[in-house]
């Protein structure tokens, strides 16, 4: 891949480049979850919905690890972007049958 | 806490059929969907579906959608729109946010996840420019919103989505400048490919997009030939004048809720990557959670509908709503339909992949 | 870009009530109930926001509320997904710059 390609974004939301992700891999961060922790890739508004698979592929290609080893196996809630104010007002036990 | 027999998440082809089948069995079903309208991606499928007659083959996706909605209404199925399923707790509690303002939790004796899939991306310098979008996004714009995203289109990917959306862009009045396919051969069904070809659209196999140019919006794209190792061959670059680049690079199952709930995963490269393990009845490793449609492995709307029926039937049966003989005969009928849909050149590969998922250790 | 007024499968564009929305201060006519992104694309608006770091333009990408690239500031609230948010009469829509203005509440 040409050198200027390294400046293209992999994570659109947090604007994390291929170069930054490859550097993190070379520093030993070799799962999508770890890459997220150190670069913020996948931590933006879309929560990795767009870049997770790409990052997994980049890690797999660079390290030789199988995809299933680098992909996240768990997800945190909420799986959609919600305002904290709404979440705080959880009607957990009070919700009436509508 | 409010309680329902079955909460179905997602009202696309799989979710609608699951809700209908379960309601027909007598279960009290709640169908939730994050969108303002039910139907998922069905209402942008304006082409005729393949398959045998009992699968509404030859009928357009939009018309199937209308029929399913009518059926759901006849059965008086409770539908919550603008409702985002945000999480699953304790295997049977669904946390939803309604209208972006009310957060509540529903106790669901059974949960059916029909969350669909997300479009894959292709990265190249310029891929974040306005005008570069998923092929599905362009399809939504033209067939749902009736707005052209651009006039001069470049399609990346010659699979079914790539050729079907190319054809629909032509129908909508856009010009499709080219379809590029990185693989050495075309990927989509012949019928759709031929239609696009007949319209004079050039197909470039063994080619990819090297970069997109533009300031505030795409103005052109550079296409390059790939060698046998899929590396660009210097000197083969050429530029196309386009304002829109559509990416049709496959789909990835939307597994966040399933895996967040703790469903065991299986890797299925043919069906889009990690999917929740499931058996023939569409039950996951968590006995109260079923799945159907693309989230269980990316296939087609027709298979999604049958899987939905299977999940709805099985979930209702597990709650005691169907006597064994009735369950058995319906189960066999749906399974028969699924096998029929998973035959032929494209289908057999999907059938093998499905069987591999089911054969994987439940763990 | 342009509305698809006639379509070989879907037929003519059905009549629809019009609403007026305000896009960066300018009145824009939209079809009642349509998504903000559709109304803006119909006007040919090249981009919907500019990013935080490189101030790059962005527009719709997934079109179904998943990728969040099409977010704008709507009635004063930033980060509203315009592809899944319907227009309303008098709605004030602004091209979002970076995180947008949260009125000190971010």
Could you explain the architecture of this structure?
The complex is a heterotrimer of chains A (98), B (363) and C (106). Chain A has helices at 18-26, 32-39, 52-63, 67-70, 84-88, and strands at 9-11, 16-17. Chain A has 98 residues and is mainly alpha-helical. Chain A has a single domain (7-94), classed as Arc Repressor Mutant, subunit A. A two-stranded antiparallel sheet of chain A has the order 1-2. Chain B has 363 residues and is of the alpha/beta class. Helix content of chain B is 32%, strand content 27%. In chain B, helix 1 links the parallel strand 1 (2-9) and strand 2. The longest helix of chain B is centred in the last third of the chain and has 18 residues, at 301-318. Chain B starts with a strand and ends with a helix. Chain C has a single domain (16-97), classed as 2Fe-2S iron-sulphur cluster binding domain, sarcosine oxidase, alpha subunit, N-terminal domain (Ubiquitin-like (UB roll), Roll), CATH 3.10.20.440. Chain C has one helix at residues 36-43; strands spanning 2-3, 18-23, 26-31, 49-50, 57-58, 71-74, 77-81, 92-94, 96-97. Chain C is globular, with a radius of gyration of 14 Å. The mean pLDDT of chain C is 94. Chains in contact: A-B, A-C, B-C. Chains B and C meet through strand 8, helix 3 and strand 9 of B and strand 1, helix 1 and strand 5 of C. Strand 9 of chain B pairs antiparallel with strand 1 of chain C.
CATH architecture of chain C: Roll
- Fraction of residues in helix of chain B: 25-40%
Most extensive interface: A-B, 39 and 38 residues
Strand numbers in spatial order across the main sheet of chain C: 3-2-8-6-7
- For this structure, the CATH topology of chain C is Ubiquitin-like (UB roll)
The largest β sheet of chain C comes out as: 5 strands, mixed
Question: Structural class of chain C, please?
Answer: mainly beta
Number of H- or I-type helical stretches of chain B: 9
Total domain units of chain C: 1
How large is the radius of gyration of chain B? 21 Å
How many helices of chain C? The count is 1
Condensed summary:
The complex is a heterotrimer of chains A (98), B (363) and C (106). Chain A has 98 residues and is mostly helical.
């Amino acid at each position: 891949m040409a050198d200027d390609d390294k400046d293209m974004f992999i994570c659109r939301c947090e604007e994390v480049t291929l170069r930054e992700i490859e550097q993190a891999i070379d520093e030993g961060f070799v799962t999508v979850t770890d890459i997220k922790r150190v670069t913020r890739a996948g931590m933006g508004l879309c929560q990795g919905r767009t870049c997770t698979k790409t990052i997994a592929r980049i890690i797999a290609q660079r390290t030789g690890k199988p995809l299933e080893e680098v992909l996240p196996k768990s997800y945190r809630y909420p799986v959609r972007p919600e305002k904290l104010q709404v979440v705080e007002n959880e009607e957990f036990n009070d919700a009436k049958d509508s | 806490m409010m309680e329902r027999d079955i909460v179905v998440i997602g009202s696309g082809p799989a979710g609608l059929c699951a809700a209908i089948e379960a309601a027909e069995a007598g279960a009290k079903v709640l169908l939730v969907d994050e969108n303002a309208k039910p139907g998922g991606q069905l209402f942008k499928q304006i082409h005729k579906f393949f398959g045998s007659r009992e699968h509404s083959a030859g009928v357009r996706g939009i018309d199937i959608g209308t029929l399913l909605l009518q059926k759901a209404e006849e059965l008086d199925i409770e539908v919550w729109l603008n409702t985002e399923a945000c999480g699953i707790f304790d295997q049977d509690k669904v946390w939803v946010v309604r209208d972006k303002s009310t957060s509540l939790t529903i106790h669901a004796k059974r949960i059916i996840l029909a969350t669909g899939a997300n479009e894959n991306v292709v990265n190249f310098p310029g891929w974040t420019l306005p005008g570069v979008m998923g092929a599905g996004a362009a399809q939504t714009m033209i067939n749902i919103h009736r707005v052209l995203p651009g006039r001069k289109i470049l399609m990346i990917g010659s699979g079914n989505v790539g050729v079907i959306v190319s054809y629909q862009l032509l129908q909508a009045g856009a010009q499709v400048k080219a379809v590029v396919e990185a693989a050495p051969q075309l990927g989509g069904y012949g019928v759709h490919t031929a239609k696009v070809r007949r319209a004079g659209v050039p197909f470039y196999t063994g080619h990819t997009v090297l970069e997109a140019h533009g300031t505030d919006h795409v103005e052109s794209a550079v296409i390059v030939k790939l060698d046998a190792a899929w590396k660009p061959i210097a000197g083969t670059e050429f530029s196309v004048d386009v304002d829109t680049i559509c990416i049709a690079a496959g789909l990835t199952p939307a597994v966040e809720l399933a895996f967040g709930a703790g469903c065991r995963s299986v890797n299925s490269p043919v069906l889009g990557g990690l999917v929740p393990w499931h058996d023939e009845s569409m039950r996951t490793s968590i006995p109260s959670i079923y799945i159907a449609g693309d989230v269980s492995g990316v296939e087609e709307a027709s298979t999604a509908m049958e899987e939905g029926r299977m999940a709805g039937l099985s979930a209702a049966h597990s709650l005691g709503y169907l006597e064994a003989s009735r369950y058995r005969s319906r189960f066999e009928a749906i399974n028969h339909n699924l096998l029929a849909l998973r035959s032929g050149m494209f289908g057999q590969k999907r059938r093998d992949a499905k069987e591999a998922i089911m054969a994987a250790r439940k763990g | 870009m342009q509305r698809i007024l006639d379509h070989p499968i879907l037929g003519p564009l059905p009549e629809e009530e019009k609403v007026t929305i305000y896009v960066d201060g300018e009145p824009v006519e939209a079809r009642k109930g349509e998504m903000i992104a559709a109304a803006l694309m119909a006007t040919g608006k090249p981009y919907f926001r500019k990013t935080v770091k490189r101030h790059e333009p962005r527009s719709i990408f997934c079109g179904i509320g998943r990728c969040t690239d099409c977010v704008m500031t709507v009635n004063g609230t930033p980060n509203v997904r315009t592809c899944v948010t319907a227009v309303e009469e008098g709605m004030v829509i602004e091209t979002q710059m970076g995180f947008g203005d949260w009125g000190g509440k971010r």
